[in-house]
Amino acid sequence: MPVQVREYARLTKCISHVPSIDLGLISETTFNWITRELRGSEQSAKVWKYETPDTLKLGSFVGYIETPNGESIEVLPKTSQGSSDIEKDRLLLRRMLLSVFALPSREIGPADLMRTDRPIHEWILAQFLGELKKLVKLGFRFDYERVEEESYYLRGQLDVARQQRQPANKAHQFHIRHDVFSPNRVENQLIKTALEYSLKVTKDNENWRLANELNHYLEDIESLTKPLHFIESWTHSKLMQAYTDIKPWCVLVLEKLNPIFQKGNHRGISLLFPMEQLFEKYVVQCLRKSLRSPARLQEQAKSKYLVSHQPSGRAEPTRWFQLKPDILLWGSETSHVLDTKWKLINESLNTSENKYGVSQADMYQMLAYGYRYQLGQGHMMLIYPKHSGFTLPVGQFNYSDDLKLWVVPFCLESGLLIQGEWSEYFPPLQFEGG
In the predicted model, what is the mean pLDDT of the chain? Predict the structure, then answer.
């Protein structure tokens, strides 16, 4: 059973503590391994921080970690300020991954999606193996492979240059080139590599049984030692349509799950996603699906800068501090800046001291966006996740008579913004109940 915690939880080796969703109890061996990782990896320092001699603090990453000694830690999204529903959070994480990575959710049955007893990595392996099982039934695509060999018989093309250098005692053997109709095309090799890794890491009986069964069908296919170099060679053509659904799962296994293919010295399992980026991309995908035509969304706009600077002696000024809002909403007449923040704010903290939990830095950031991208006019939006403490928009913030900001909750389950006074100023956006 993995240690189950959520974002920003603490991990401790002190056995006197009572474990909870915000405090995970780990072995001293695991604690020491994490401490060594922190000293040797910048990436590890983003995942957890050394807090006390007995305690580590997690950052805003979600997913699954398995240490070399076999101990596992499951990190779930923090979707409430109180106690957490593990199954609900696990299901939410799956839905977000399906949307963000454009995974073929239409092929996943409701019963399979609802099975929440599997950790996230076992669920991903199960989806990959399910797609591979369907591909095996449809049949693999073969391709011609060039073979160079010595043979007692002539076939294909004679390699004249090498044949001329053949010693007298081997004059009866021919250096030839010929094509063989082989299953060793790059797509099949990537799938075989992902399958071999699935067999090594899965601890789920059903996954292991299916992976072992499918491995027999791929025994004539060679795996790759550096598969990430070949992902871009995956062919997209009409002849390869049967491979469309398995590709995203295969890539997810190879890129996210396999530490052998990752940089660094990690030799466990590390399937981690930065929650801020996951939330941002999830909101973009959901808004894009519900957007009213002819409006459109632009992600990560980067055409504006905060200031221009003209150093002494230079004729042309340079632009400094690039501004990159998460979303630009383009309507028929106006544009709006929308920015996402993965943070649990509270609508009841409406005092000048608490300010709902909205940070001053975020407000300054939106001010810069508004003046550069909207010329100091119109309406902007800050989007936070909806939870029990933030169920309704909190009202309008005024930077000036012409520039306004709305703080709006986003429902993670429905994938829609919550209706409020903001709705009339953002007509292309659909909302919950609208």
Answer: 86
